[in-house]
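quick one, 190 residues, struct below
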Amino acid sequence: MDITNQKERIILGIDPGTAVMGYGLVKETGLKIELISLGVVKMGAIDDHMLKLQRIFEKTVALIDNYKPDCLAIEAPFYGKNIQVMLKLGRAQGVCMAAALSRNVVITEYAPRKIKQSITGNGNATKEQVAAMLQSLLNFKETPDFLDATDGLAVAVCHSFQRMPAGKSGSKKSYSGWDTFVKDNSKRVI
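---
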């Protein structure tokens, strides 16, 4: 499939959170990716968890209605030291997904490590490293107040990179077995 002649699509990326939700939108035209918008939704002084979820839902629907994205790419919750935090993040993610589903928007989920790997080449990159690489890739200078905004943008860019042909985004060729790998990489095998 030659994606250089394909029509454009708009990707909404979301880094869900119950204190701050980051988002980024990119327009993909063939192999070209352009920044449309990035920002955060702050929950501010909202103490009630259900009201935070309502705000996340409403803001996600508003982003979808405003920008008409073709798809939503969302960061998966990860397990840290506190299971309660993971549960809250999972709810926030679920509410974003429900908002997208209510508008018939296709959803793809990415692990945090996969996102960092696709943007910087390092799955252990810091938020600052991801932000710097995005500024370079998308040619924008302004530094968002919250790194959650560039985290949301990173999810959108990661999703775009998944459709790029091998060699264009650093994606690797897949192999059917060791024999094929060794044959294609004889100089790498000792």
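Confidence is low (pLDDT under 50) at residues 166-176.
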